[in-house]
Automatic annotation (TrEMBL):
InterPro entries: Fatty_acid_hydroxylase (IPR006694), Sterol_desaturase/TMEM195 (IPR051689). Signal peptide: none annotated. Keywords: Lipid metabolism, Membrane, Oxidoreductase, Transmembrane, Transmembrane helix. Pfam families: FA_hydroxylase (PF04116). This is Sterol desaturase family protein. PANTHER family: ALKYLGLYCEROL MONOOXYGENASE, STEROL DESATURASE-RELATED PROTEIN. Residues 84-217 form the Fatty acid hydroxylase domain. The chain crosses the membrane at residues 12-29, 41-61, 81-98, 139-164.
Length: 258
């Protein structure tokens, strides 16, 4: 029954996100914004499907690693609202550093490259995620498990963090006033996806921009971003996009940014 309930909730969320994508396509067409490209969008959808399958394939691996690490937790925190809020903020803090290091460490960039490879900014780009990145998740959240935060809170917070980021991948929403620089916004995330020199390696926060403020990586949107990596178009083939970073890593050809 519980699994059926979760599946139903997942289906409702998927349909809601699909409706938003359709509305954005209509907006783009009516306003002649050209934020969608058919081949690029089909590649995004194929990558999305592959990513969902990868979560199923690697679930056992993730569960085994996290379960093993939980044996070494320093504390056993109770499942309370306060602990959930702490977990949510802690996950975003860990995500900030993981995200930032993914732009600095070449092997991590090999995983992350696919997300920055699109020349467009729209909601479908949000799930342009590497199929193998699920292998890294247990190690990313390992510090939180070892501290003793409840595993279910960590998982829920990570899921909510990624869900929130879905709404950041759009040009349909402009700047949001005083929220800019406090929370991650579409404007701030457009900067992150920009390959403009002043936008490289900026705005890594998933939900909060306070980490970027604190650690000197915040950049407001001042000019229209040029999306993609600094070397330009890569491919619309999802397999090329997924494995391009790894091929370049082993060839020693990763002298580009995104």
């Amino acid at each position: 029954m519980e699994n059926e309930l979760r599946a139903g909730q997942g289906g409702i969320i998927f349909l809601a996100l699909l409706v938003l994508v359709i509305l954005e396509i209509i907006w783009s067409w009516q306003k002649d914004k050209k934020v969608y490209n058919t081949k690029d969008t089909l590649a995004n959808l194929a990558i999305f499907v592959g990513f969902q399958l990868s979560k199923v394939v690697f679930f056992g691996f993730q569960y085994a690693i996290m379960g093993y690490l939980s044996n070494f937790a320093l504390f056993q925190m109770k499942s309370t609202l306060i602990v959930f809020l702490v977990s949510f903020v802690a996950v975003d803090f860990v995500y900030y550093w993981y995200h930032r290091l993914s732009h600095k460490i070449k092997l991590l960039w090999a995983f992350h490259l696919v997300h920055h490879s699109s020349l467009f900014m729209n909601l479908t780009v949000s799930y342009r995620l590497n199929w193998l990145s699920t292998l890294l998740t247990p190690f990313v959240v390992a510090p939180l498990i070892l501290v003793g935060l409840p595993f279910e809170f960590i998982a829920a917070s990570f899921g909510l963090n990624l869900l929130y980021q879905f709404f950041l991948h759009t040009e349909a929403i402009g700047k949001l006033g005083f929220i800019e620089g406090i929370l991650a916004t579409p404007s701030a995330h457009r900067v992150h996806h920009g390959s403009n020199e002043e936008y490289i390696d900026k705005n890594f926060g998933g939900v909060f921009m306070i980490w970027d403020r604190l650690f000197g990586s915040y950049q407001p949107e001042t000019i229209k971003p040029t999306y993609g990596v600094t070397t330009g178009f890569i491919s619309n083939n999802p397999f090329v996009l997924i494995f391009k970073g790894f091929m370049d890593y082993f060839k020693g050809k990763m002298d580009y940014k995104g």
